[in-house]
Design goal:
It contains 6 helices and 15 strands.
Length: 343
């Protein structure tokens, strides 16, 4: 008989319940597969006029003559047509009695990952995934120049169950005038650890996971892909750079190549082991004005949509995870990726 465990996240101090007595294999989860529904798509080639004017596009075969908002692109970034925040104006911080408010200032962009509507990130050639990551980096570097922004979040919702409203492969970027609470908690926890031990907690986690690789999914020269010790969700997986760096945009060209390889491998393994799940992917990086922190370590978090957050989680802040990370890492590690899509 298995005994449930309470596990504590060493970074933010959050406790999770690993319900080992009802441990689940990938086949035990009921989920919606990502399927194509068809219909008009404003993100497809030929429909460039249906989106706001692009802020970035890669046209590798245009030889400098590619027309802005024209065809021939491999990655394209446009402002969101229905933005969560507006780019114009000032914050205008105000009080309303005891409450605080400000204008909804920010940037909201759509990163179109490929012209191919029927493809998705896992199936793109590794070189194309690298181009997508360079687009992340280029947009962060550009938006960092706007001193109104304090944090830039890049995230991907793949599949309707994960919150995607458009089928075409894309990610989103939101630049915020404040540092989000979850990010602040992560940074504060890392800073407290560094104050006590004079070491980066993320680097310590990396060392421990590599010494005892029971939760490791894969690794290459520059990156480690592993299930965290106290995951909130089944098959939650993180990608960490092995070399300490707090800001994603400071990646070298060599690291970018290996990050594309690590990300592709993780996504392909989840396709095989979890039967093409919907998922959320988020970049965790340093605030834009603090891009050289000795106690913080940028990383990517991958969360397949296999369970729903319910009343207990919302009421307590605890998460119940029916799959121990050691088991989930083993399933992903042993998933055999077809050689036809491995590169």
């Amino acid at each position: 008989m298995f005994v449930p465990e309470l596990r504590k996240d060493p970074i933010v101090g959050r406790w999770v319940i690993i319900s080992t007595d009802r441990a689940k294999r990938p086949s035990d989860f009921i989920r919606s597969k990502v399927v194509q529904k068809g219909g008009f798509c404003p993100l497809c080639p030929g429909n460039e006029s249906k989106t706001p004017s692009e802020v970035l596009a890669y046209r590798p075969n245009a030889n400098g003559s590619g027309q802005k908002n024209g065809s021939g692109w491999t990655v394209r970034v446009v402002p969101n047509k229905f933005p969560a925040l507006g780019i114009e104006g000032t914050l205008n911080r105000q009080a309303e009695g005891m409450f605080d408010k400000m204008n909804g200032l920010g940037a909201h962009e759509v990163i179109i990952e490929t012209p191919d509507h029927a493809s998705h990130l896992a199936l793109l050639p590794q070189k194309n995934i690298e181009s997508v990551l360079w687009a992340w980096r280029d947009r962060i570097v550009d938006l960092k120049q706007d001193r109104r922004f304090k944090y830039i979040m890049i995230f991907k919702n793949h599949g309707e169950a994960a919150g995607a409203t458009l089928e075409h492969p894309h990610a989103q970027l939101i630049a915020l005038p404040i540092v989000p609470k979850h990010v602040s908690e992560e940074i504060d926890g890392a800073k407290q650890y560094f104050t006590i031990k004079e070491r980066c907690i993320f680097c310590d986690i990396l060392r421990q996971e590599m010494e005892n690789p029971v939760r490791v999914v894969s690794e290459n020269e520059d990156f480690l892909c592993f299930a965290p010790f106290a995951p909130r969700f089944p098959f939650e997986t993180w990608i960490f750079p092995k070399r300490h760096e707090s800001a994603f945009e400071n990646l070298s060209s060599h690291q970018m190549i290996n990050l594309a390889a690590a990300l592709k491998q993780l996504l392909l393994k989840s396709e095989v082991a979890l039967d093409s799940p919907a998922y959320n992917l988020a970049l965790h990086t340093a605030p834009v004005q603090e891009n050289s922190l000795e106690y913080y370590h940028w990383h990517i978090e991958f969360i397949p949509k296999l369970t729903n957050t319910a009343g207990f989680e919302w009421g307590t802040g605890f998460y119940i995870n029916p799959t121990p990370p050691e088991e989930s890492a083993k399933f992903l590690r042993e998933a055999e990726v077809p050689t036809t899509v491995a590169k």
